[in-house]
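Reopening this one. Same input as before:
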Amino acid sequence: MDNLNLTTLQRGQTMVNDVAIDAFAAGFRGSLLTSKDMNYNEARAIWNAMIDRRPGLIARCAGAADVVRAVRFARDNNLLVSVRGGGHGIAGNAVCDGGVVIDLSTMKSVRVDPQTRRARIEPGATLADVDKETLAFGLVLPTGINSTTGIAGLTLGGGFGWLTRKFGLTLDNLLSVDVVTADGELIKASETDKPDLFWALRGGGGNFGVVTSFEFKLNPLDTEVLAGLVVHPFADAEKVLKEYRQALEAAPDELTCWVVMRQAPPLPFLPAEWHGKEIVVLAMCYCGDVAAGEKAAARLRAIGKPIADIVGPMPFTGWQQAFDPLLTPGARNYWKSQDFASLSDAAIDVLLKAMRRLPGPECEIFIGHVGGAAGRVANEATAFPQRSSHFVMNVHARWRETGMDGSCVGWARELFEATKPHAVGTAYINFMPDDETDRVEAAYGANYARLAEIKRRYDPNNLFRMNQNVKPMATVRTA
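Same output, byte for byte:
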């Protein structure tokens, strides 16, 4: 690109030399966008509309060589760096002000080898991209619950969803990565190549480099699963949640059931008189034989007197996209999350009190059901530490008008504080907003010191700090 003339791209208080900028642009195969480009605003927009940052340069990479060039350019000019995969992260760390966005969103290749049951996936792919390719061969990678989520951020932070109890976290299925480190080198990390770095990348987020390719093992799955929703009136919430908790005590790994509490959207299977009223939803998926799934889910479906029960056989790709309409881009979002070893009566009481004070029609509380295969991995086996959590709460405040910021954010924070006595203290970094930097060390628990040491070796100057940041060991506070 000729004459970038990046008047906003700054190194501290000093403008970056035009010669350096032109040299970077001349060897870059992808596209470079500045505020002068017509599609700049579209390129800097991400899923969470609360994030409104203006990078000096968006380097939309075409391949690993572009990523290497971008990292070296940012390092050599002491520029702030953010890395964008799917742009779906709640904290908004995919974009930065004034610096360089290393944009991987066009690197979307998914290559499946059905013989070895492996997939090679680029970091710009979404979960929908992954499912489309893997399920064509009767194979699947356990991921999240929203098909527009990017595979890169999901994997590096953990990755849990409908298949986690059967096949583990997304990162538990990771075999190797190609990663560009802070010194601008492309290296491979796996259990045998740079195993310390590979350990850190499985849960340590974007702290250690830019992954340009993921290699995953895949798992066999019929294209059809038993899945769907059972909807209850909120008046029955206490009974539903307590019986839900009991029903899951003997649940097989194939069965996962999440709870969603919110105002009912205008879903076609709900009677019109329930639209806009508070409801409790049991969202379940059985990833095995449908007849066996009917038996396994029977106790959950027998709870109370539901308004609607639409559980039945369906394509897994359809179920994976079922919540997409409620999570479209363009809304303002703020999350707070807790991990629970169990769903105690006291915790249920706190949740129900908060539900009676919903600040808006799109705000919700969901309880993710995990454990199973993911819980049978040792805490220290990967950087991801919270293996003992059986339930994950996400307080999802979502709204449209800036005038609602205070009430929605305040509601989420109040519920977070009220649930602290009932939680285990860890956190899922992919659910942490950008104001929780003081929570990172606690989120990793006993794994934090090892992460900080690996960070010191691979990124001593903290080039990759637009994330839930693990500071290099030399700067870890000792007080």
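So the earlier flakiness isn't reproducible anymore. For the record, The radius of gyration is 22 Å.
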